[in-house]
Write a structure and sequence with these properties.
The complex is a heterodimer of chains A (491) and B (95). Helices cover 40% and strands 12% of the residues of chain A. Chain A is α/β, with parallel strands linked by helices and 491 residues long. Chain B is mostly helical and 95 residues long. In chain B, a hairpin with a 2-residue loop joins strand 1 and strand 2. The relative contact order of chain B is 0.08. Classes of the chains: A alpha/beta (491), B mainly alpha (95). The interface between A and B is large, with 71 and 52 residues.
Chain lengths: 491, 95
């Protein structure tokens, strides 16, 4: 049996039947990481002993017939999520040696079921980027072709799942950082509604936009992981009090009733856009046809302010980042750079300049500029007003449809190094994903096809706030129809 | 809007970032390209629109002021320099 190809539901089933042990499964993944991660670089930290010890504990729990769904399942965890006793670097020199003293709330949920942390995955530093080329610990390569980017910022998580280094992974999404790498690596990725998942213990980039979510081999696994991680948390004052449904019920509904009569919104603004690759549009149109063939109704909707999304985001996110990252000052944790005779302010400046990479410094500068005296109204306030208009656009659109369908990224994965010196082009790559973060609505990336050079291209489904069920239902039906996710890259 | 080299120096100082003289002009150029793009916001009509700062409900969340497990973690465990339950920093006032 090829243990490394197992999904969460398959592995959990075999563990329940005691046909495999978590130690066998965990060892298989660790051996595969040893053999292949040298060329992929999906992980920043792999603690073999800790993983095996967790697997052993899981096996004991299974032997006592106390198994939960995730007991013994090896997961990759984006290295921006605090793991007690396990280094959490945010892919930054400034946190190279940081060992959290507590778990993020999502990790408490993961560990309560005795899942196994196979390793901490690579990312763009502090989740700022779309290619995982901004990591202080080296680029991550796309397992489908190592000359190409895996996407970002959760590129390590995406590469780890695609390369069969773990059953699934957790990522974070501030402007598309779960959905775009999922698309580039042929995975299912969900950014839940803002507030669904506690952000406690996730190192904040832009607090009003960040959300944790699953990156998995299929829609069923994504729904299972949503069941694990969602829910109100008193430690996160922005976490929602809304009741959390059993997300697998959406899949049961799709199986029983199909999606006949579901209304799928097609934004008219996305029909004919500059800068979108023909291959991406082809995959997008195919997905529309597939949904139509299953009886869904395509409805034209309008998102008139979506064209301002990238500009509004690149004000709002850097403003929040500039404020959030002020905490890394060489005093309470992380790197300190100091020379004899330095005053406090010199220590601050040297620490930040040595500790933060170029892109992080660039965003801090944009944020500081936009919030500085005389510019607040022109930038931060204006961007926040645009944000309100984007929220309205979606509210109107979801009065006409159950889900929205769009591309994920305007191009298939690009080559490593191709855009790294051109931040603006990199930013424009977020055009289809960013508005969901601004509006706080859930979004999902699904495998939908391949480019001419055999690189994955996904499609995105969006639904109204707290209505992940519609998105998962339609997403499951589309997955079954397209069958684009049923394959793995050869390493 | 154009950001000048002097402005970049001023912003960097406010953000507590040290910048090499030779890096300032290229950074200013990059920031200007980004700001030029962001200026498309000028064309949007936002008259009378209340800004949205967060998609959550923005209500105060209160709890009892009680000690929890997280208040007892070792806050100094990751400190670069500390002594007697204080963080040590370089001298602030010159002697």
């Amino acid at each position: 049996m090829d243990l490394c190809s197992l999904s969460i539901s398959q592995a959990s089933d075999l563990l329940s039947k005691k046909e495999i042990s978590s130690q066998e499964l965990t060892t298989a993944f660790l051996d595969r990481i040893d053999a292949h991660d040298g060329s992929i670089n999906a992980f920043i930290t792999v603690d073999r002993e800790m993983a095996i010890a967790q697997a052993k504990k899981a096996d004991e729990k299974i032997a006592r017939n106390e198994k939960d769904l995730f007991t013994g399942i090896p997961l990759g965890i984006k290295d921006i999520i605090c793991t007690k006793g396990l280094k959490t670097t945010c892919a930054s020199k400034i946190l190279e040696t940081f060992v959290p003293q507590y778990n993020a709330t999502v990790m408490e949920k993961v560990m309560a079921q005795d899942a196994v942390v196979i390793g901490k995955t690579n990312l763009d530093e502090f989740a700022m980027g779309a290619s995982t080329e901004n990591s202080a610990f080296g680029d991550t390569k796309n397992p489908w072709n190592p000359e190409y980017i895996p996407g970002g910022s959760s590129g390590g998580s995406a590469a780890a799942v695609a390369a069969q280094f773990c059953c699934a992974a957790l990522g974070t999404d501030t402007g598309g950082s779960i959905r775009q790498p999922s698309s580039h690596c042929n995975l299912v990725g969900i950014k839940p509604t803002y507030g669904r998942v506690s952000r406690f213990g996730v190192v904040p980039y832009a607090s009003s936009l960040d959300q944790i979510g699953p990156m998995t081999r299929n829609v069923t696994d994504a729904a299972l992981m949503m069941n694990l991680i969602c829910g109100n948390d008193p430690k996160d004052s922005t976490s929602a009090k809304e009741a959390v449904p059993d997300f697998t019920q959406a899949i049961a509904q799709a199986k029983e009733q199909g999606i006949k009569g579901m209304k799928v919104g097609i934004p008219m603004e996305y029909k004919d856009m500059d800068g979108v690759a023909p291959e991406v549009m082809q995959v997008y149109r195919n997905a529309q046809k597939a949904l139509e063939s299953m009886g869904a109704e395509l409805v034209e909707v309008s998102l008139p302010h979506s064209r301002y999304g990238v500009a509004a985001y690149y004000i709002i996110a850097p403003c929040e980042a500039g404020s959030n990252l002020a905490r890394f000052d060489g005093v309470r944790y992380g790197l300190r750079v100091e020379e004899a005779g330095d005053a406090l302010i010199d220590m601050y400046k040297k620490t930040k300049s040595k500790g933060f990479g170029k892109e992080v410094q660039r965003r801090i500068l944009i944020g500081t500029y936009a919030l500085s005296a005389g510019y607040y109204d022109a930038y931060y306030k204006k961007a926040s007003q645009i944000r309100a208009l984007i929220v309205d656009d979606y509210e109107k659109a979801f009065q006409q449809c159950d889900v929205l369908l769009s591309p994920v990224a305007p191009t298939p994965p690009f080559k490593l190094g191709e855009n790294i010196h051109d931040p603006l082009t990199m930013y424009l790559g977020d055009m289809f994903t960013i508005c969901a973060n601004l509006a706080g609505i859930p979004g999902m990336s699904l495998p939908a096809g391949f480019s001419a050079n055999n690189l994955p291209v996904g499609v995105q489904m969006l639904s109204a706030r707290f209505d992940e069920m519609s998105m998962i239902k339609a997403g499951y039906a589309l997955e079954q129809e397209l069958k684009a996710g049923d394959r793995f890259p050869e390493l | 809007m154009k950001i000048s080299v002097e402005e970049v120096e001023h912003i960097a100082n406010m953000a507590r970032l040290y910048m090499d003289k030779k890096d300032i002009a290229p950074v200013a150029e990059q920031l200007n390209r980004i700001i030029d793009y962001i200026d498309i916001l000028e064309e949007a009509d936002v008259t009378g629109v209340a800004p949205c700062f967060s998609p959550s409900s923005m209500e105060n969340v209160l709890r009892e002021d009680e000690t929890t497990a997280s208040s007892t973690v070792d806050a100094f465990a990751n400190a670069p320099e500390q002594a007697d339950n204080f963080y040590l920093v370089p001298r602030v006032v010159k002697s």
